[in-house]
């Protein structure tokens, strides 16, 4: 049994159809528990007041915005090296999900930043690299839409994905590279000293798991749609030739 | 409902904006899925082919 077997569209469709109900159920449960716990049952922060409740949206969305791009990078590399169509379609399917997380992170960040920093936006290294990552998401989706031949589109978008990965990594590590700007360091770290307090940390972990599963659910469903669309295109082409 | 004080706009705005964006993503995904499934089923029925 090899992981590459799932690069076969039929096997992927069978496995994802079985996995989807579980993914949907877990997503709903984790998001409901995490968000209700965070919103209703955690105290205000001594410095940030009730705005700390935005952490349950902002941190998971920002983490996933970067992680989705990394997933797209891995599947794009699989496409470049092994030419598995499912991997290219999975990258294509993931982009709108990543873009949604990016927009959520930007919007909640602006809404959080205004009362805390006194500004909606600052040209801070992390914020700026995150904004560029957003533009890469738009560019990636536009490139897929602009190219007729799917293999050429997969090739070119994979290269774009490689380039955009620089900004995905910068978004995560910019705070460490440049000791300037308004944005604070990581909210979650292997170093317990750097982590947010336990009372916020546990519901935050549940929300992160919920956002991750939302991503899995959306990508499974969207990849299935891309595989069906590809088959539809092939059947219509055959019909035209016959 | 917890008392959000002077930050009510920021907190509720964040939750509403997130709910709207996620609902739009889920809605669009389900709509595209249903549309593609229907179109593929029609073509498969016409051509007498099925991929399971």
Automatic annotation (TrEMBL), chain A:
Q: Which organism is it from?
A: Rhodobacter calidifons
**Keywords for the protein's UniProt record, in alphabetical order:** Cell inner membrane, Cell membrane, Cytochrome c-type biogenesis, Membrane, Transmembrane, Transmembrane helix, Transport
* One Pfam family it belongs to: Cytochrom_C_asm
Q: Which residues form the Cytochrome c assembly protein domain?
A: 6-183
Functional summary from the UniProt entry = Required for the export of heme to the periplasm for the biogenesis of c-type cytochromes.
Q: What is this protein called?
A: Heme exporter protein C
Coarse class of the primary localization is membrane
What domain of life is recorded for the organism?
Bacteria
What is the protein's membrane topology class? Multi-pass membrane protein
Mark the transmembrane ranges. 20-42, 54-81, 93-112, 127-147, 159-179, 199-221
Family to which the UniProt record says this protein belongs? Belongs to the CcmC/CycZ/HelC family.
- List locations, semicolon-separated: Cell inner membrane; Membrane
**What InterPro entries would the database entry show?**
Cyt_c_assembly, Cyt_c_biogenesis_CcmC, Cyt_c_biogenesis_CcsA/CcmC
């Amino acid at each position: 049994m090899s992981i590459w077997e799932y690069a076969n569209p039929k096997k992927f469709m069978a496995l994802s159809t079985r996995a989807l109900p579980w993914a949907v159920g877990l997503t709903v449960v984790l998001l409901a528990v995490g968000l209700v716990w965070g919103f209703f049952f955690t105290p205000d922060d001594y410095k940030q007041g009730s705005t700390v409740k935005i952490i349950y949206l902002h941190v998971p969305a920002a983490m996933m915005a970067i992680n989705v791009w990394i997933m797209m990078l891995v599947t794009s590399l699989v496409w470049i090296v092994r030419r598995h169509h499912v991997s290219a379609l999975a990258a294509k399917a993931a982009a709108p999900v990543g873009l949604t997380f990016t927009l959520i992170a930007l919007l909640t960040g602006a809404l959080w930043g205004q009362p805390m920093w006194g500004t909606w936006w600052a040209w801070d290294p992390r914020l700026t690299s995150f904004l560029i990552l957003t533009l890469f998401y738009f560019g990636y989706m536009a490139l897929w839409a602009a190219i007729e031949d799917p293999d050429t589109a997969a090739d070119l978008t994979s290269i774009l994905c490689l380039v955009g990965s620089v900004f995905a990594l910068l978004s995560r590590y910019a705070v460490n590279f440049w000791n300037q700007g308004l944005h604070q360091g990581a909210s979650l770290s292997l170093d317990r000293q750097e982590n947010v307090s336990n009372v916020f940390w546990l519901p935050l972990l549940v929300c992160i798991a919920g956002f991750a599963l939302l991503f899995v659910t959306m990508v499974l469903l969207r990849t299935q749609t891309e595989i069906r669309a590809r088959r539809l295109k092939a059947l219509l082409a055959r019909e035209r030739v016959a | 409902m917890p008392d959000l004080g002077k930050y009510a706009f920021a907190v509720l705005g964040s939750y509403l904006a997130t709910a709207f964006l996620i609902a739009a993503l889920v809605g669009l995904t389900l709509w595209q899925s249903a549309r593609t499934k229907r179109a593929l089923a029609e073509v498969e029925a016409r051509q007498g082919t099925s991929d399971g």
